[in-house]
Amino acid sequence: MHVTSTLTGWLIIVGCYLVGEFLVLVTDLPLPGALIGLLLLLGGLLLRQRPPEMVGRGAQPLLSHMSVLFVPAVIGVGLFWAEVRENALGIALALVATTIVALGATAWFAQRLIKAKRPD
Amino acid sequence: MLRAQLAVNQITSRFAEVVSSTVTLNGMVWLAITLAFYGVAIKIFRASKGHPLVHPLSITTIAVAAVMWLCNVSAAGYREYASLLHWLLGPATVALAVPMYNQWQNIRQLGAPLIISVMVGGALAPLLAWAVIYLTNAPMAIQMTMLVKSITSPLAMETGAAIGGIPALAAVFVILTGIVGALAAPLTYRLLNVTMPDAQGVALGAVCHAVGTSKALQMGEVQGALATVGLGLNGILTAVVLPVIL
To answer: Which residue from B59, B113, B231, B242 puts its CA 20 to 30 A from B37's CA?
Structure first.
């Protein structure tokens, strides 16, 4: 029972992904196919207005173990190692300094905006 | 009609390639090695109570790279053997619709301030990073890759590819951004006196995607929920805007 509904939910998700890929290929949209799939699924869930039990169950393993799916991609950096080393300083600065600045600025700004809307 | 047929052919042949490189001895062995290391990495991550420095992705990658080095397997080879994992990123991206749907009430309630904040973070983080990398004269492909560093990896990789960046590098930039943000968030918030849970969460999600979101979940339930919203909204906004304007 659990297994079938997880599997059905999983197939719905894969189906949305494949339809998204298909639409991007057919229409030459400059967007990732997976994004179209995400929007399709979100749209479908919002239209149904019911807790997405099957899809939620199918999504769970993909969401909680997403990290392992990135391993091949990260390993692929080996292919670009020379370029990374050549630009190491700039990359390090861009990743560390600007991330902290952007995080702080965004949080500070969000706090001001939300406070303006619902003053405590 | 012809276009539709071509598209279907392309999708099925890509899938057939994934299956045929997985169902080989090398494919099975490397898949098993990766999953085994990942299992250990999760245990370490949980034992450390989710410290961002021991994120399962970094531990698994380092361990797999070490075995590759010992067995003299190239990055291109491993990528072929483990292409099933890579393919699953597509469905995993689609699955992000579920937490977004669950947070829909939150998004509607906070409304404009939430969306504006996400847009500010979503524009500020990549532009600052791009400015730095531009000033150091990095090649165009690295500049383009930097633009997607604040969104969740599957979207970042596809969007990076669409704007002329390097998908593999995008995945690394994204994960490092997340780790930096998760480590720096508590002190940064204290210094800037950001005490509101909603603001803490939305910034972590918008600027530091999934790694930031897991940090936000540790900080509290509200932070976690708002980070999911920031992650999803900025992912969608960036993935839609960048390919269109570039």
So the answer is: B231
